[in-house]
What we know:
The protein has 305 residues and is an alpha+beta fold. The protein has seven helices and 15 strands. The strands form two sheets. An eight-stranded mixed sheet has the order 6-7-8-5-9-12-11-10, with helices on one face. Strand 11 and strand 12 form a beta hairpin. The longest helix has 13 residues, at 89-101. The mean pLDDT is 94.
Amino acid sequence: MTADTNKIVPHLWFDKEAKEAAAFYTSVFPDSQIISESVIPDTPSGDCDLVSFDLWGQRFMAISAGPYFSFNPSISFMVNFDPARDKNAAEQLEAVWEKLSDGGVPLMPLDSYPFSKKYGWIQDKYGLSWQLILTNPEGEERPPILPSMMFTGENAGRAEEAVQFYLSIFNNSEKGNMAYYPAGMEPNKEGTVMFSDFALENVWITAMDSGLEHGFQFNEAVSLLVNCDTQEEINHYFEQLSAVPEAEQCGWLKDKFGVSWQISPSEIDELMGKNATTEQIARVNQAMMPMKKLDIETLRKAYRG
């Protein structure tokens, strides 16, 4: 783990496009690069490509593991183009929008809105969605890219509850902005969350409610990977977050809102990364497969053989 900012990492599940998508995204956003690529052999999905990459200061992981989950806008990525950080922010936003538009579908057209002079929401050619916004340079500074949760359907109206819940579980947490829908914005209910942001382990995330009929919910296509330095930490996050026993597998869990998390030892990179041999990766993977909550010591033993 190279920095605090990598404590919570968005994890993207692709059918077989993880490497291609990582190459595409690192070409779209400034200051971006592939960090590592490896193959996890003999999983239930066959051999899986695993890619770690940085986009404009935000670490991501992506895996090619079969056609089981599809991206939807319940978790998108808010991209802040801040004129206080870059005087060409508006032009930069348009350039990124144009690249993401290649094979993509606009969900909200790039336009001027009451909350921003320039904003658009787009689903890219892989189905992942991005909200590009020209931010108010007077506002509090936020990182360029933030995971963004939308609470819809049976979850609509629970964004504030979710923010409080996550803040109570994670260390180095901070409550940011919280804006509510006023009356007259049906189907959004007055007093539910129009926009909020909060930091968990120094990673900023946004959350909002939507009363519109979207027909999607959180799923495993985008999960949040928590890198833990100790077994105690793994135990804490796993036990506090897990609410769906049948979703517990290989460190994965679902919380009471349906958001998927992976609670993982931060040294997993060492145990299954580019410096591990194919045999070591296979042994660690075999040890991990039957586990629900991950056990660091058992994984280390498998690595050592």
